[in-house]
């Protein structure tokens, strides 16, 4: 039995991504220009990170856009796993951005550098807080960031950017008050740490899904217990659970049952796995009770 619950593509899901892309692209252009005139490594670091975020948003949006493409003979699940690939690439973008930020900051610490224009840094970064918070707000209103790591990755990046911009504002203010010019590159280093910490869980989950791991929101032990709790099920083997997208999970299992011809059992198990365990695609094979047959219970 194959229980296949198809999700229709919802154009409204693309709105938060497109909003974030437009707002951040406009802000990056302004921020790069002002970073040059302000001689601010922290501002440059923030702009560079924003570039990686726009690239991440574009990838995440593209994954959502192709999510609704129909399945074909060569892609029987459609293009749903594009969301997993996008999440993984986004995490790699962040790592590259962090190393560039740290490199620029260390070079400036070692070589000194021009005095950053504190007022300009604070003004530009204040706009950054507003831009990123507004873009993140669209994801919060959509609600997808709670259950979809692709949307969660975009949301976390935007909220981290808002926090990073706040840090740059603080650095600009302290530099202006204390004349401690080393604060600017130090804040850049801290920005890198914040980026890694905020995105680590997303990176870990995307790697897990790429290698067909059990999604973190699915408890394999609970799934196995729920199946075996059915009085018609004697035992199970060859249980496999994996993510086919950042929001969908698939399961295949062989069940030894009392009556392999009981189609109501298939329907009951399929609905239970979908409604209670959040597993949308299930393939269940029923078998006779053959105690002498060796089974590999995975």
Automatic annotation (TrEMBL):
Q: Where is the Cation efflux protein cytoplasmic domain?
A: 215-287
Q: Which cellular component terms (GO) are annotated to the entry?
A: plasma membrane
Gene3D superfamilies listed in its UniProt record: Cation efflux protein transmembrane domain
- GO molecular function terms listed in the Swiss-Prot or TrEMBL record: zinc ion transmembrane transporter activity
Residue intervals of the Cation efflux protein transmembrane domain = 20-209
What does the UniProt entry say about where the protein is found? Membrane
Looking at the UniProt entry, the stretches that span the membrane are: 21-39, 51-72, 84-105, 117-142, 154-174, 180-203
The family database entries (SUPFAM superfamilies) matched by this protein are listed as: Cation efflux protein cytoplasmic domain-like, Cation efflux protein transmembrane domain-like
Keyword tags: Ion transport, Membrane, Transmembrane, Transmembrane helix, Transport
Membrane topology field: Multi-pass membrane protein
> According to its UniProt record, what is one Pfam family this protein matches?
ZT_dimer
Q: Which family does it belong to?
A: Belongs to the cation diffusion facilitator (CDF) transporter (TC 2.A.4) family. SLC30A subfamily.
- UniProt protein name: Cobalt-zinc-cadmium resistance protein CzcD
Q: Which organism is it from?
A: Weissella jogaejeotgali
Q: What is the lineage of its organism?
A: Bacteria, Bacillati, Bacillota, Bacilli, Lactobacillales
């Amino acid at each position: 039995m194959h229980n296949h619950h198809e999700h229709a593509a919802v154009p409204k899901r693309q709105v938060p991504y497109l909003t974030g892309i437009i707002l951040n692209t406009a802000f990056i252009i302004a921020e790069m220009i002002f970073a040059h005139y302000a001689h601010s490594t922290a501002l440059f670091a923030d702009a560079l990170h924003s570039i990686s975020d726009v690239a991440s948003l574009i990838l995440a949006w593209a994954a959502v856009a192709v999510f609704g493409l129909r399945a074909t003979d060569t892609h029987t699940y459609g293009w749903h796993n594009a969301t997993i690939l996008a999440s993984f690439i986004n995490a790699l973008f962040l790592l590259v951005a962090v190393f560039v930020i740290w490199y620029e900051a260390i070079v400036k610490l070692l070589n000194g550098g021009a005095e950053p224009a504190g007022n300009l840094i604070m003004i530009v970064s204040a706009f950054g807080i507003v831009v990123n918070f507004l873009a993140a707000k669209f994801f919060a209103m959509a609600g997808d960031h709670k259950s979809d790591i692709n949307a969660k990755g975009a949301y976390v990046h935007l909220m981290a950017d808002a926090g990073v911009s706040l840090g740059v504002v603080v650095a600009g203010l302290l530099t202006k008050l204390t004349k401690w010019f080393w604060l600017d590159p130090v804040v850049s280093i801290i920005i890198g740490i914040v980026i890694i910490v905020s995105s680590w869980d997303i990176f870990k989950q995307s790697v897990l899904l790429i290698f067909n791991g059990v999604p973190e929101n699915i408890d394999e032990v609970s799934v196995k217990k729920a199946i075996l709790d059915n009085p018609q099920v004697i035992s199970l083997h060859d249980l496999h659970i994996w993510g086919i997208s950042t929001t969908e999970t698939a399961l295949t299992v062989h069940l030894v049952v009392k009556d392999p011809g009981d189609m109501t059992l298939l329907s009951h198990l399929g609905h239970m796995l979908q409604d209670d365990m959040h597993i949308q695609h299930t393939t269940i094979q029923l078998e006779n009770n053959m105690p002498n047959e060796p089974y590999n219970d995975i």
